[in-house]
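C-alpha cells in:
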C-alpha cells in the first residue's frame, strides 16, 4: 500500500521541535519526549525541526506511530549522513514505538521501512516481496496500541499454540509464494485475535463476511 502515509519533513536545528498536522493531529503530542519521532532523534543524535503531515490515522491499527518513526528514521539518517542501511534503521525506528506502547518493537516499523512482508524476531527482521491483491477497509474505530497489547493473554494452551504457529507458517509460505489462498488459510489466531476482537464492535461479523 502506498496510501495512507505520513510525510515527514526534517531540517537541521540546534534543538528538536515537532509540528504535527492533518488527520488526528490533535491527539498526537508535539513534545519530543512524548512523540515517537523524538526517540528516533535521540537514537541517531540528530536534532532537527520536524514536520509530520499525518496520513495514517492514530489508533487505526495501521501503525500510525510506526509510520512517523520510520519516516523520521529514514529522513534523519539521510539529513545527517549517518550511513545506516534500511535494515539497520529498523531497530532505530523501533525505539520510537517504546514511547507509545512501552516496548521497543519492530512489528510495524519493519514493513514501513523495508516494504513487502516482514517477520520480526529477537534475532532481527526478514522480508520478502509479496504480490497479493488486497481490499482494504478502514472503519471509524479507534484502539490504542497500549490497549491492544494489554489484552494479549499471558498464557495459552499447547493446542492453541500449535495451531497459531502452524497458521503463522502457512501465512508466511503464502506470502513467499504470493498465494492468496494460503494467506487466507493462515489468517486464524485462537490466542490473541479473540481478545482483541472484543475491542472492535462488529469485528466477528466483518471477518465472517470477508472469509
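Residues out:
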Amino acid at each position: 500500500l502506498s496510501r495512507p502515509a505520513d510525510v515527514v519533513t526534517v531540517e537541521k536545528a540546534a534543538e528538536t521541535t515537532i509540528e504535527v498536522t492533518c488527520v488526528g493531529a490533535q491527539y498526537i503530542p508535539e513534545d519530543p519526549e512524548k512523540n515517537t519521532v523524538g526517540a528516533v532523534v535521540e537514537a541517531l543524535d540528530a536534532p532537527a525541526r520536524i514536520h509530520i503531515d499525518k496520513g495514517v490515522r492514530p489508533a487505526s491499527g495501521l501503525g500510525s506511530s510506526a509510520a512517523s518513526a520510520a519516516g523520521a528514521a529514514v529522513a534523519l539518517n539521510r539529513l545527517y549522513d549517518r550511513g545506516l542501511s534500511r535494515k539497520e534503521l529498523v531497530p532505530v525506528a523501533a525505539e520510537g514505538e517504546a514511547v507509545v506502547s512501552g516496548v521497543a518493537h519492530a512489528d510495524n516499523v519493519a514493513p514501513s521501512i523495508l516494504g513487502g512482508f516482514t517477520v520480526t524476531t529477537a534475532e532481527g527482521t526478514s522480508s520478502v516481496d509479496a504480490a497479493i491483491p488486497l481490499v482494504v477497509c478502514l472503519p471509524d474505530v479507534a484502539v490504542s496500541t497500549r490497549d491492544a497489547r494489554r489484552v494479549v493473554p499471558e498464557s495459552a494452551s499447547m493446542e492453541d499454540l500449535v495451531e497459531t504457529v502452524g497458521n503463522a507458517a502457512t501465512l508466511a509460505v503464502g506470502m513467499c509464494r504470493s498465494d492468496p489462498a494460503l494467506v487466507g488459510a493462515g489468517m486464524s489466531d485462537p490466542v490473541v485475535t479473540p481478545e482483541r476482537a472484543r475491542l472492535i464492535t462488529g469485528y466477528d461479523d466483518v471477518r465472517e463476511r470477508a472469509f
